[in-house]
Design a protein that fits this description.
2 copies of one chain form a homodimer. Chain A is α/β, with parallel strands linked by helices and 892 residues long. Helices cover 47% and strands 17% of the residues of chain A. Chain A has 35 helices and 32 strands. In chain A, helix 20 crosses helix 35 (876-890) and helix 22 (586-597) packs antiparallel against helix 23 (601-626).
């Protein structure tokens, strides 16, 4: 930084400012908003902001200030003196200031506020005289010493608290309010002496020394360990730096006509268009925070609602309240969003200390966005941009009542949102049986596998001791819309005794537990819940989103129930129908196992013939629900051994139930066992080696189409998807076979099936060879779960063991199975899009991995030019909103 | 094909030809070489070739010949008539012809030869008169009917054989030679009658009908099922087509001054510069093949060597032999390679029927290449190009004596070359124990795992029932230079009873078996072997190769013994030293397990302190052997559970042996178990989560360096390689830690360690992000085993189950774990090379996967611009030769 020509200090106050709201990078959020309020002519105590560039220069230059900074600060200070009519260090009319840090983003670890800076023995005496309130002056003085010693000088806070406690004990004082001006003067002397003892030099009495000390402390805190850790975690560049705000003090504690308060311009909890805030008469801001006194309501309406005995500000200070209300209205109009505001009243005069966009709950965010659009304050597209899609999730599931008491048993990952409550059960079959008896259960497992699907579906919610955000339990639960806590490591499941231990807790089968899938908590007993409301505001915002988006939104749905939910949540088709889930049904698994155990093709064909009518019925039901909407049906994907029992006990059960030989079952399971099933004999590899499986599935699809068309007259649109393709040749071979089945069905049914054939792009090689593959594909669907696994060489079932370390070390910014890795996986997708489209212009492109429901990943899909995203039915609204935001973002 | 302006028929003979050797694509190999010999003025029976383009046009045009072909054939036939003075179909002077197919590559399934075409009752009579040998004429006639009926008309061969047998039986004839001219004439009548019965029309007597029938049969055979299958398997495009050669007959069976023979211009078995061939007096070519008469030696030297009683051609026909010898010399000089030749002598006149480059054994190929270079016939670089690197492998290992009898027990994959013999043993520990007693063993396992390493090393060879070319057994065996047959599916191992079954064979522990790693055979008993000779010719050719190559060749070596072998086989460094193999040693595994079971960092550090001196000693030994040569040492890679026992029995043993708790062992093993270990907690992920492991390894390397430097004065060059990197951040973090250890060791040892830090590129993401990663890497080594696994999403341990189907369906041209997939994996490598070098110009690039020893993959490495390849020590010469060939190929 050359620095010579750069302005380093920006003044504000008195109806003007050198900065403005747009200068957050240079002045920090707080400084920029103070300048903006000053420009608006609002009553802002005058002050100045030292820019973030000074911080950067400070570190670039071995912790030395750039030349000329002192002069600029002095000039700005002179302006403050002029505006206030007071002088810094002048006992006759002492100017006191506050010093605060303020970066672009608020950041823990940064230096907090120093108030009342400029006080020493002389100015304190002057303040006492001027305010005609010596007690106020010496109380302020002792607060300053305490705060400055702690924050700037690094002395132990307890040192001063001990002195004060001792002083009060010796005089039998219970409350600070009992101390007189003389008491505080005595305490000040004790404080100064103690500080001098600790420092080995006197407590600084020169106001300018105090000021530069505080400025230096702000800059030093930028490199504190806590700040560095926070920056690394949140990816805030060190080069951003922090600004320093120096501002004339105003006092809410100068008697009964003084006050201090905080307020939101709308209710941050419900979004109601009503002021929401609290204030305290004759107090400083820290008193509100400290909680020693109970704050009063800002408005009468709020007071009534809360049942407060103390009067509201609206009633107690009607003139000031009216002025404040007009400021609120002005700020909301100006910033076009709900504001979070701090103010102080000094002897009947209102001062604005801060404004910023207010945080809010999901419900409030929705209501505020829709209301503001209705009020004409923002456009409908802006309203769409205002809703955080991640927050939207809260509105789609029952949530725990925040105010209800909780007894935490264990914590895990928030794997699938929503709250659920029921008896703990440790076996999937038992869960199903209990639910049939009308009981509500939570299925608790070490981990789940495809054979638990029935029990998972029956259960209200699922808890697993092992597994990450994309473990089997998590993926299936999200797909089903069941709340799920996965990887609750403290839980030790004891299947034999039907109980689990977690710390000191023992939960036996039948004990009621509640789980919160949004926070990952497992709780004892039944905790009160709040049902979601998908009413008018929600529907209105979603309709605006639907109008704004370019990409279609589909859902991953394996069953008629899923398809129904998908349609209700606004999905425009099915992006992934996993046919293997249909194989696990009790009625079918026997035939599936018979097929696997068959010695030859004839045996397999015979077993598959038993499955055909059942599979056809599934497709019929789904086609009936989805009507004309496109359904992408993926042919069998998992390795065959997933359908066989493994534990000896299970083998015996299956043998008894099916009449198959236990020995043959065991031998075949051993033969099919794989070192790395994820990379094994699955997907289209099964289709290549056992042509009869895919042929049966294709036949079931085509026959179901014909049946539904005959029944309803609607033409179901089937997109047949081949999984795990690595080479164009695989797809070429399988497409020929599917076309042959279509011809055969057409000949028998007397009508052409309407279908297309495409492939998952879920292997790096498929992405690279997309040009070849597109010659045989009508569509690509990016299977980003597997694509992430193979691109990273990372099994999502096994990543849990080191994922936390990787996030902690900053190797992963986010779990790559949750949020798509744009640099690696993303490049493969971009390559595949480019090469696929170059080979076939009409190629339809979508995504069906878990990322299809993640807002940041959906943004990437828009950027990459995909035609649609597909996600679990319950996330369809999130996807619709995210797709809309991505489109708006790119429309400039 | 427009075809109008295209020449479709090429004549040859009489000292001229319209074609030449360079026109193989158009005329096929046989036709092109016949033309070339005619051009050289050699005595070639005149004839003509119908081009391969006619075949293509034939199929493009719905099996119709292009217009004008008949006229061109007639014109060419007229030239043959002119040259021979005979006329096709003229009883007074009948021209007979042979018709043969001949493509670019010789191909099974194509139509074989038809001889004596042009014969009918009239021309046969004419031939009898002209040759004054009616027996010859009618014998030729019946041979023609038989051959034409079989090959062109598709009649059953047995039909004619039965007739002949019956005829002979009825007359009490034992041998064909007992039949007179009249007998053959009678047989001809019987043959014609039988053919007419079968055909429902007379046997074709018009020579032109015969000719077009034969031409059509050649073209038809191009689309025979056998030909199509062969083309698919060998990737021969259908569009190549086949040519048809029509040539005037010459007869080796016209009495004692006639003969027929085949010869090589050098010994195809040893490479000796001496003619090698056989001939028969008064015979046609088919008689040599039929084996009814024993052929005689071509030369006196050969006759003496063979101990033949019959005279050699050199003695029996000295003038013809001299003429033949001069033709041999001429052809070898002309083609500049050893030739495989067919000739016929008709009544004292020599005719050349074929010449082509002769197939030869590896030993012969080596000797011929080196000799020809010494003779000045070819350059040294040409000699290098003449040796097939795949064949070279045969020279580096003992091989089975081809002439020894074999009893095949089972067949598997040729996983690691060489032959070995010993007692079958089914347990690795038992193998070690037996070898210590001085016994020789073959280790037979269902599959092997890292804990079998000791037994594998002790054994002479390894057999597994499961696993592909890159299964654990195969990779380790190749690395150790142990012969190995993997995936011998017929073998059923019964560990309990210590035996295996394969078909009808039962092999018990202690039974001697022999394995042939070059062919994948498992044989009963001891089979005689031939030791490799790496003498003068080998060394000379390798020195020429070394002079020609650009890339360095290193070896993958984990132990001092490997390092020694690597140096002896000409490796210029170690490209991959896998440190985990050092962990399995009996003395260390206990400490390794203690480390894994440790509850915290301190416990791990204490256990690692026990391993440090042992690991340091390993590195010292390797550095001592490799001297100044670079050694790339890969830090710990496999997941920790690989070091724990899994079977309950093993756990008890380990618990007893180490004093560790069996319960703790089981619990930890269960905790560490992974769904997909290949994609799990391994490689640098271990380094990130357990920093102390890599720190110990780095310390062992640096301390070993210091010790060897102090001892020998040589500076060992250590290249520390971090495995499984997916992000630049991983490498950055680990490099910082390694540098810190180096500083610490330097401070204590008083000298700077000389080292560089680099990474494996073995994940698609690493290849894509090579630019970022190169900022922290001194070198990249492409780990193409894992890169192939992740790019294809294909586990090499599990691929065996469908690999055969994939090769059969033409989805894989070659096993991608054997020969690098240039299109997919290759693109990632090219991207990584480009991006890595762009970020760091000095980046050193190599390959250390199994592909580093595969000639075609090495060719790719040259093309991609890598600096070196690394392969198992025993393959280093193959890599040196392949690298040289790749460089020569690219030098134009």
């Amino acid at each position: 930084m050359s620095g010579e020509a750069t302005k380093r200090v920006y003044a504000f106050g008195d109806g003007t400012a050198e900065g403005e709201a747009g200068m957050k990078a240079l002045l920090g959020g707080k400084g920029a908003n103070l300048a903006e309020m000053a420009r608006l002519g609002l009553p802002v105590p005058p002050g100045f902001t030292i820019t973030t560039e000074v911080c950067t220069a400070f570190y670039a230059n071995d912790r030395a200030y750039p030349e000329g900074l002192t002069e600029e600060v002095e000039a700005a200070l002179a302006k403050v003196e002029e505006a206030t009519g007071k002088r810094f260090g002048d006992p006759a009319s002492p100017l006191l200031v506050s010093v605060r840090s303020g970066g672009r983003a608020s950041m823990p670890g940064m230096m907090d506020t120093v108030l009342n800076l400029g006080l020493n023995d002389e100015t304190a005496a002057g303040l006492a005289a001027l305010s005609e309130d010596p007690r106020f002056a010496y109380d302020s003085y002792r607060r300053f010493i305490q705060m400055y010693s702690d924050v700037v000088l690094g002395l132990d806070h307890a040192l001063f608290e001990d002195i004060l406690e001792t002083y009060k004990e010796e005089r039998d004082f219970a409350l600070d309010t009992e101390l007189s001006a003389d008491d505080w003067r005595a305490v000040v002397e004790l404080f100064k002496a103690a500080a001098a003892r600790e420092l080995g030099r006197p407590f600084p009495s020169d106001p300018r020394e105090q000021l530069w000390g505080a400025i230096g402390a702000v800059f030093d805190s930028w490199m504190s360990e806590r700040a560095i850790v926070y920056r690394n975690l949140h990816d805030i560049p060190e080069s951003w730096g922090t600004a320093v705000n120096v501002q004339a003090m105003v006092f809410g504690n100068m008697g009964e006509t003084s006050a201090t308060g905080v307020a939101f311009t709308r209710d941050p909890s419900t979004g109601e268009n009503a002021y929401y805030g609290e204030f305290l008469i004759n107090a400083q801001g820290e008193d509100v925070v400290a909680g020693i006194r109970t704050p009063q309501s800002l408005t009468e309406a709020m007071r009534e609602k809360m049942g407060d005995p103390a009067p509201s500000m609206e009633a107690a200070m009607p003139a000031i309240f009216a002025e404040l209300a007009s400021v609120f209205a002005r700020l909301e109009r100006h910033y076009r969003d709900m504001q979070d505001i701090e103010f102080t009243v000094e002897r009947g005069k209102l001062w604005m200390l801060q404004t910023r966009t207010g945080k809010r709950t999901a419900a409030a965010a929705l209501k505020i966005a829709v209301d503001m659009a209705a009020e004409g304050l923002i456009s409908e597209r802006e309203a769409v941009m205002r809703m955080d899609p991640g927050q939207l999730d809260q509105l789609l599931h029952p949530t725990l009542d925040e105010s209800a008491p909780r007894t935490l048993v264990a914590s895990g990952l928030p794997a699938s949102p929503g709250a659920a409550c029921g008896e703990a059960v440790f076996d999937a079959a038992e869960a199903e049986a209990l639910v049939k008896q009308g009981r509500k259960v939570i299925l608790v497992r070490i981990e789940t596998s495809p054979k638990d699907i029935g029990g998972m579906h029956a259960a209200e919610g699922i808890v697993t001791a092992r597994g990450g955000m994309t473990s089997h339990a998590a993926v299936v639960a999200r797909g089903m819309g069941r709340p799920c806590v996965s990887g609750a490591g403290e839980i030790r499941v004891d299947y034999e005794n039907k109980l689990f231990r977690a710390g000191k807790h023992v939960v036996k089968q039948g004990d009621v537990i509640t789980i919160d899938g949004a926070s990952g908590q497992v709780l004892l007993g039944e905790v009160a819940m709040i049902k979601p409301k998908l009413g008018g505001d929600f529907a209105r915002l979603m309709s605006w989103a639907d109008a704004a988006r370019r990409m279609k939104v589909r859902a991953n749905a394996d069953t008629p129930a899923d398809a129904q939910t998908a349609k209700e949540f606004g999905a425009e088709g099915i992006g992934l129908c996993r046919t293997e889930h249909m194989f696990f049904d009790d009625a079918r698994i026997a035939a599936v196992r018979e097929m696997i155990l068959a010695e030859d093709r004839d045996g397999r064909v015979a077993a598959l013939a038993k499955i055909l009518p059942m599979q056809r019925a599934d497709f019929e039901a789904i086609f009936r629900i989805m009507e004309h909407r496109p359904c992408t049906i993926r042919l069998l994907d998992p390795p065959l051994h997933e359908f066989l029992p493994h534990a000896e006990e299970d083998v015996m059960d299956v043998a008894a139930a099916t009449g198959l030989s236990a020995e043959a079952l065991m031998a075949r399971a051993a033969e099919l066992a794989e070192a790395n099933p994820m990379l094994g004999h699955r997907g289209c590899r099964l289709g290549i080696t056992f042509p009869e499986i895919y042929e049966m599935q294709a036949r079931a699809i085509f026959e179901a189409q014909a049946a539904v068309r005959a029944e309803t007259g609607a033409q179901p649109a089937a997109e047949i998807m081949i999984p795990l393709v690595a080479t164009a040749k695989e797809l070429e071979i399988l497409k020929v076979r599917i076309d042959a089945v279509a011809k055969d069905v057409a000949a028998k049914a007397g009508a052409q099936p309407a279908y297309s054939v495409g492939t998952m792009i879920e292997l790096p090689r498929a992405a690279l060879r997309a040009g070849d593959i597109a010659r045989f594909a009508d569509f690509f669907s990016f299977g980003t779960n597997d694509l992430t696994q193979t691109t990273y060489g990372l099994s999502r079932d096994d990543a849990g063991k080191f994922l936390a370390d990787y996030l902690g070390a900053g190797i992963f910014e986010k779990d790559p199975f949750v949020s798509l890795d744009r640099d690696g996986v993303g490049e493969l997708i971009r390559l595949a899009v480019e090469r696929g489209r170059a080979a076939r212009e009409s190629l339809k492109l979508g995504i069906c991995g878990e990322h299809g429901g993640d807002p940041s990943s959906i943004d990437f899909c828009e950027e990459a030019g995909l035609d649609y995203v597909s996600c679990s039915p319950y996330r369809a609204p999130i996807a619709r909103l995210s797709a809309a935001q991505a489109a708006i973002r790119r429309s400039g």
